[in-house]
Amino acid sequence: MSKRITLLGSTGSIGTQSLDVIRAQGYEVFGLAAHSSVDKILQQVAEFHPSYVVMVDPDAAKAVEARLAGTAGAPRVLSGSEGLVELARMDGPDVVLNAVVGIAGLSSTLAAIESGHDVALANKESLVTGGHLVTEAVKCHGVHLLPVDSEHSAIFQCLQDAESAKTLTKVLLTASGGPFFGMKREELAGKTRHDALKHPNWAMGAKITIDSATLMNKGLELIEAVWLFDLPPEKVQIVVQRQSIIHSMVQFSDNSILAQLGVPDMRIPIQYALTWPTRVPGPAPELDFTTLKSITFDVADEETFRCLAACKKAIGKGGLAPCAANGANEEAVRLFLEDKIGFLDIGRLVEDVVDSDRFGGSYTLADVYECDRAARQYVLSHV
User: Fold this and answer.
1) Among 279, 270, 230, which residue's Cα sits nearest to residue 247?
2) In sequence order, which residues have a C-beta less than 8 Å from that of residue 166 and are 6 or more positions away?
């Protein structure tokens, strides 16, 4: 069945792989959005012919508009975070796939949901920073929130049997362990951004690759799982699965466990989010068991990787604590990528922010952004 897709974050790693799926399925692209990659988005426009394009960076929007001037059937170009929200809200697509990086994706997730769109969510920060707002909006507007993260997609796939899902007792969220698995704090002290960007299994953007190295990504995914599957944090267990073949597992009341396996290729969960509830052939390769020699498991070391411990503490506190952890991490990762702080400083700063306040209680969207601002300022004043 043909579908129309709005893709937010089209020039990033998830965005380009989403277009692989869209191309393979022959879907129509209603709108594309990116931050500032002018050449890449123009290539995408030439192939997919969207009706709308958003460039969050105003100068990039002007450049795209100028280069499309006089082109027959050129899309309308919007700019800024307001343009991103406007596109997410527009009637036209069957699914809005949000692959924006960071808290910047929250407003567009809410806009899409409130406009009655199903959302394929690759922007985990929407749930981390505003989980209560997002899940309440989903209930209010009767739409589907379809996970794109490979781990949450795996859990979602394992829970498609409604009767079995009622007896869910635990989620086993897998982690690759990142490039520094097995190392202790003294070994991590001198690690550089070049070291941290060498992920053993996945090709991802810089920010999420650093998050994988610190295990922050797994902490964020734990928080995301709590909201997606309506589970208490203690029912989400982190398991290191170094080969990234088992993408996650679920345990039921009889202690049986279901797992979803596949090659480490994001096009599998992306496609399932877009084709759900059906499965169709796609561009991802088959898992070859003749070459798979071992599948191993280990324990995540949160004593060494303090970001994971901080995220567990944050979801336990509730309220805006996860938002504070996320904001501190985004700022700390930015500083680390600019060689302004050390690798271990990321975990220290995130944990300090979470410990700095109680953060409990209900909140509004304005509160989320104020908490994010305060967390970033805390990091900048404590480096």
Assistant:
1) 270
2) none
Check residue 154 and give its pLDDT.
98
Q: What's the pLDDT tens digit per position in 49-96?
A: 999 999 999 999 999 999 999 999 999 999 999 999 999 999 999 999
Q: Which two tokens stand for residue 50?
A: 């969207």
What Å distances lie between residue 96 and 57, 115, 124, 226, CA to CA? 21, 11, 14, 22
> Please, is 205 exposed, middle or buried when counting C-beta atoms within 10 Å of its C-beta (0-12, 13-18, 19+)?
middle
C-alpha–C-alpha distance, residues 213 and 191, integer Å? 10
pLDDT at 292: 92
Amino acid identity at 261: L
Q: Which H or E element spans position 136?
A: helix 125-141
Are 126 and 90 within one domain?
yes
> DSSP readout, 261-291?
E--S-THHHHHHHHHTT-----SSPPP-TTT
Tokens 């450049």 sit on residue: 63
CATH of the domain at 29: 3.40.50.720
pLDDT-flagged residues of the chain (< 50): none
β-pairing, 236-240 vs 298-299, is antiparallel
Q: CA–CA separation, 221 vs 193, rounded Å?
A: 22
Instruction: Please give the residue range of the domain that contains residue 157.
Output: 153-381
Q: Identify whether residues 324 and 200 lie together within a single domain.
A: yes
pLDDT in tens, 142-159: 999 999 999 999 999 999
Give the pTM. Answer: 0.94
